[in-house]
Design a protein that fits this description.
It comes from Shewanella woodyi (strain ATCC 51908 / MS32). Keywords: ATP-binding, Nodulation, Nucleotide-binding, Transport. It holds the Pfam family ABC_tran. This protein is of the alpha/beta class. Helix 5 packs parallel to helix 6. 32% of the residues are buried.
Length: 321
């Protein structure tokens, strides 16, 4: 479609009562062409309900959603500008990729000559005669995305697009979505992964109990996550837990906030702030001198779960919705 002006999506004072004690309320944001907004929330705090309101599948009690100047409630017209992918969607058992896409494109009145262009876009040419259910998780998800964008929508909406995928498949999907964004498609997606925010998002909207608690640029949001840090994992901290803990505590007293000793159960590790990484060699030498060996050293980024706990005081899982 790609026919509307720069502002693709506008959500104004949106509200919907979902139960006697839960409602979405006063949600507002806008999205321009080629921009992406990430929805972040704990499970059951309104992400999927908000997505259904944006797509026009559910009507709000208050406020409005406009897509390319059209009310989302005007489904017959607004849907021409939308591509929507649900979190879970099954595929038919016996259809080949080419058969499945041809059928889906016909339903969406996509010109036949676009088939070659689209399957090349998704890098699925070599799988045309493969059963759709035999594809990898990443390629199955690409198939869903391809169908959703075949009619060239202005807005692509994805409910946790990488849920259930392995690391390789996640990278494939994120790369594909990034490419679509560069072509001018605007994107709304829900996620629990901070790396997806960094790779895709321009804006971040945080929901807590149905309320919009934060709307910021992705850079502002990520800055609240904190700086990267070095994580030093110990090879065998259980050999002498008391000695290990005492040695690390003594070291921490000498260097203050330069490093932090943390434990998960009986397992200890050390975190060194990014700006203090020049003490790494001294830390390693000290540990060696007291007989503590390291298993690994690697850079870590604060997890999205940490900022969610800070913003709402509630837990959020990073792997599922």
């Amino acid at each position: 479609m790609m026919s509307c002006d720069n502002e693709v999506l506008k959500v104004s004072n949106l509200g919907l009562k979902l139960s006697s004690n839960f409602a979405l309320s006063m949600i507002s944001f806008s999205l321009n062409r080629g921009e992406a907004l990430a929805l972040v929330a704990a499970n059951g705090h309104g992400k999927s309900s908000l997505i259904r309101l944006i797509t026009g599948l559910t009507k709000p009690d208050t406020g409005s959603v406009t897509i390319c100047g059209l009310s989302a409630n005007n489904w017959s017209k607004a849907s021409q500008h939308i591509g929507y992918i649900q979190q879970y969607k099954s595929l038919p058992d016996e259809l080949m990729v080419k058969e499945y896409l041809t059928h889906q494109f016909t339903l969406r009145r996509v010109p036949k000559q676009q088939y070659t262009e689209l399957i090349k876009l998704a890098d699925l040419e070599m799988y045309q005669n493969t059963a759709v259910t035999k594809l990898s998780g990443g390629n199955q998800r690409k198939l869903h995305i391809l169908v959703a964008v075949a009619h060239k929508p202005d807005l692509l909406i994805l409910d946790e697009p990488t849920t259930g995928l392995d690391a390789t498949s996640r990278e494939v999907i994120l790369s594909f979505i990034s490419h679509l964004k560069r072509t001018g498609v605007s994107i709304v997606f829900s996620t629990h992964h901070s790396d997806e925010l960094e790779q895709l998002a321009d804006q971040v909207l945080v929901l807590d109990q149905g309320r919009q608690t934060l709307l910021s640029t992705v850079n502002e949001f990520i800055s609240t996550l904190g700086s990267p840090y070095l994580k030093l994992s110990l090879l065998n901290p259980n050999v002498d837990i008391g000695k290990t803990k005492h040695s690390l505590d003594e070291w921490q007293k000498q260097f203050g906030n330069s490093l932090e000793v943390k434990s998960v159960g009986p397992q200890f590790h050390i975190e060194i702030a990014e700006q203090q990484q020049d003490i790494l060699s001294s830390v390693v030498s000290y540990l060696s001198s007291v007989g503590i060996r390291l298993k690994s050293i690697h850079w870590c980024h604060p997890k999205l779960a940490e900022i969610m706990r800070h913003l709402s005081g509630k837990n959020i899982r990073e792997d599922h919705s």
